[in-house]
């Protein structure tokens, strides 16, 4: 793809991931009412609608429920339908495009932005923005709308689920029963650990981290500490703050990664942090694979230098280090923490709402603002 930094997810679509066609307009939504949303345009009207460049893998669009993304205010220009190399396709078709829709897997850097001189807004289906060159977007006056808060509760549920699974060995004992070992070898070996009372260190106490903290403290009797870019107001966030991730790890039984991926958080969990977490420590990652030095983490898991891991994200998705596949103390999921039927419905509403707001010169529903 030459100098263009665009890649799309290469994941297969799980069976049953199509979303049922429901009427969306009656549902209430944290980003406001969508009752104003116009109904889809006829084919004749559609020709004249402004185009939104779609740089998503078609499989991702199927998961999101393509049928929910229709609007009378715009139409999609689907790069994936062309057999041309992307740069040729964009040069020929997208020079006047003002809006772009991407996913977490669509890397957008200066190379692609150069081919879209009229671009004014990028809407992403992701909560994380690490795939976008934010500085370059800022410099060019391109606004960004993200998935905002719509996934936070689902990701927090998934983080807690992975932690419980690792500690209580749910997936491992499931395999034990299904392989017939209960009958042939007897009771499952002791090794499961309680969640109650565990010291949880959360890296990144944003919207997701706060929900993880609440679940684990209030629901499971854990104690919570955190590391974040900045210490939160202690009147609102009572958990102890650690400026240094290594110190947080040294004082935690489990480290749960919920931060965005930035130059500051890349490999924030490195050899020293893993050593500080120690032999009884567990890592849960629902952030981005590159927040952890994956090679070091794999080595620590293989050599028993940490106790286990629950991982939804990886450094080179969808490639998962093969050593992890063999380990019973590791639970894996395919970057699916955000993927619930309900959140996909909300996503479609939010994406269409953002794009319609843009083309109507109204405020975006979930605009990202630098802080
Ligand atoms: O990982 C998923 C997202 O950032 O939305």
TrEMBL record:
InterPro entries: D-isomer_2-hydroxyacid_DH, D-isomer_2_OHA_DH_cat_dom, D-isomer_DH_CS1, D-isomer_DH_NAD-bd, NAD(P)-bd_dom_sf
GO molecular function, one term: NAD binding
GO CC terms, sorted: cytosol
PROSITE patterns tied to this protein: D_2_HYDROXYACID_DH_1 (PS00065)
Pfam families: 2-Hacid_dh (PF00389), 2-Hacid_dh_C (PF02826)
Domain of life, per lineage: Eukaryota
Domain D-isomer specific 2-hydroxyacid dehydrogenase catalytic: 85-366
GO biological process, one term: photorespiration
D-isomer specific 2-hydroxyacid dehydrogenase NAD-binding domain segment(s): 160-337
Key words of the record: NAD, NADP, Oxidoreductase
EC annotation from Swiss-Prot or TrEMBL: 1.1.1.79
Claim: NADP is one of the keywords in the record: yes
PANTHER family, alphabetized: 2-HYDROXYACID DEHYDROGENASE-RELATED, D-ISOMER SPECIFIC 2-HYDROXYACID DEHYDROGENASE FAMILY PROTEIN-RELATED
Family membership: Belongs to the D-isomer specific 2-hydroxyacid dehydrogenase family.
Protein name, entry field: glyoxylate reductase (NADP(+))
Protein's organism: Linum tenue
